Amino acid sequence: MPKARLAEIRLPDFGMPEARPEMPPSTYAFRLDRLRERAAAARYDRIVVYADREHSANLSYLSGFDPRFEEALLVLGPTGEPAILVGNENVGMASAAPLKMRLVMFQHFSLPGQPRDRTAPLGETLAAEGIGKGSRVGVIGWKTYPSPVAIDAPAYIVDELRHLTGSTGLVENATGLLIDAADGLRVINEVDQLAAFEYAACQTSEGVRHMLAELRPGMTESEAVRLLNWNGMPLSCHMMLTAGPRATFGLVSPGDRRIQRGDRFTVGFGVWGALNCRAGFVAESAADLPAGISDYVERLVGPYFEAIAEWYGALHVGQTGGALYDIIHRRIGDPFFGVSLNPGHQIHLDEWVNSPIAPGSRMELRSGMAFQVDVIPATGTDYFTTNIEDGLALADGSLRDAFAAAYPEAWGRIQARRRFMNDALGIALHPDVLPFSNLAAHLPPFLLSPDRAMTVAG
Q1: Strands 345-346 and 274-281
Q2: What is the pLDDT of residues 308-362, one digit of tens each?
Q3: Under a CB-based contact definition with an 8 Å cutoff, are residues 193 and 57 in contact?
Q4: Cβ count within 10 A of residue 213
Q5: How far from the centroid of its chain's Cα atoms is residue 282's Cα?
Q6: For 113-139, what is each residue's pLDDT tens digit?
Q7: Cα separation of 352 and 186, whole Å?
Q8: Domain residue spans of the chain
């Protein structure tokens, strides 16, 4: 691969979708049936899905309902409509869900001090849903753990389940049914879901692109974050935008500090199904950089971009997670770069579902998986960092044909991004790779010169 260099590269206008693709109600019924099949194979009598505002992706995936303000609990048996336990304020939200569910009032999910005069004890409610002595219950919370007895639903719920099932029953973590990195139900997406992710990626990437184009020294962080043009979609993470010394911490929210020339800068914007980040310096050229790092592009950004370009080029259905991990650590595994987390992960309604990309991983990437390019150097030095975070999906020939037929405008945007990445950036993508981001791996290290970006094109 040629060495990375800085060149005049203007991002094309890839276009924006007019409307957000919606999941047909039949999709949710199909997902529930698939979960029942997996539950039966694991010999579970009941599946219990816990959700709160921070961790609603599993429930929303299954039902189209995400609780607001409160927690919620879905109880799924082998047949019939599932029960959804909600507090006072989610009755309307749950009733409007595209999946038909039996509404059960459980007011202890309500906010502190609200009425609790119309609810049965939790044990009675769960027993009415068929959970009793000898039952085998799989609990879906948020994460999996080394031991299946570790469950991240509230203790009072897990304690009640274990009391009801007794010594002859079983209560264990079943979250892997949905998020297992190799074949969890949520890591293999239908064409409609992929189209919704492309829509989401357009919103976040176009927002970051607009913010970078309008960024100026003297504006405050709060003024800069408004340039992201958030359209009100549910966020998958808090808004991240900081400049100066606080940018080192990465995850903090914007404040009222005025942005200065030469500042470190980082921005991250995520909604359900997409997240885009960029990082660098508030500078027009190396002349604006702090003293001692005039070789910022040569020392950090160039090797980083070469690693990302090779990572992209190696993507295809059937590739192993270990091979992708090895590319990054062969190129920028030196401690200077400070790459410690998985170099890439699966994305869904939540920003990070799981990752098959790990040392020695033999997990094969599958058609329908959606990924986040997420390789973040944490140098801990004056060189700070650089960052490309964009979304993509993998699709075999049949899925590509289905996508192109169902969503021709989105398909046109994807093909335009592929051409740009190949022709302008020198990144040749396998036909399986569908880039969703309107930033399309475009990396300007000097943020006040957004049309000067990295390339490995000859």
Answers
A1: unpaired
A2: 999 999 999 999 999 999 999 999 999 999 999 999 999 999 999 999 999 999 9
A3: no
A4: 12
A5: 27
A6: 999 999 999 999 999 999 999 999 999
A7: 11
A8: 43-173, 185-455
**Assigned architecture for domain 185-455:** Alpha-Beta Complex (3.90)
Give one DSSP letter per residue of 173-191, joined into a string. E-THHHH-TTT-GGGS--H
Span 211-238, mean pLDDT?
97
Q: Is the pLDDT of residue 239 over 90?
A: yes
Helices (H) and strands (E) in the chain, counts: 13, 16
CA distances from 324 to 187, 242, 364 (A): 18, 30, 11
- Residue burial 383-410, b: 16+ Cβ < 10 Å; e: rest: bbbbbbbbbbbbbeeebbeebbeebeeb
Alpha carbon of residue 191 to chain centroid? 17
β-pair partners for 371: 346, 392
Mean residue pLDDT across the chain: 97
Q: Which residue, 359, 365, 367, 364, is CA-closest to 343? A: 359
CA 116 to chain centre: 36
Listed residue (138, 31, 130) closest to 83, CA to CA: 130
Is the CB of residue 264 less than 8 Å from the CB of residue 382? no
Choose among 269, 231, 274: nearest CA to 392.
Answer: 274
Give the full edge-to-edge strand order of the sheet including 370-372.
Answer: 345-346, 370-372, 391-394, 433-435
Angle, vertex CA 279, rays to CA 430 and CA 209, nearest 5: 70
- Residue pointed to by tokens 């203007």: 10
* CA–CA gap between residue 324 and residue 394 (Å, rounded): 14
Nearest CA to 48 among 126, 123, 110, 109? 126
DSSP-derived pairing of the beta strands 264-271 and 274-281: antiparallel
For residue 335, count other CB atoms closer than 10 A to its CB: 9
pLDDT at res. 326:
98
User: What per-residue confidence (pLDDT) applies to 250?
Assistant: 85
Using CA of residue 24, residue 28, residue 33, residue 37, what is the dihedral sign? positive
Helices 321-332 & 302-314, crossing angle to 10 degrees? 160
Pick the CATH number of 43-173 from 3.60.140.10, 3.90.25.10, 3.30.470.20, 3.40.350.10: 3.40.350.10
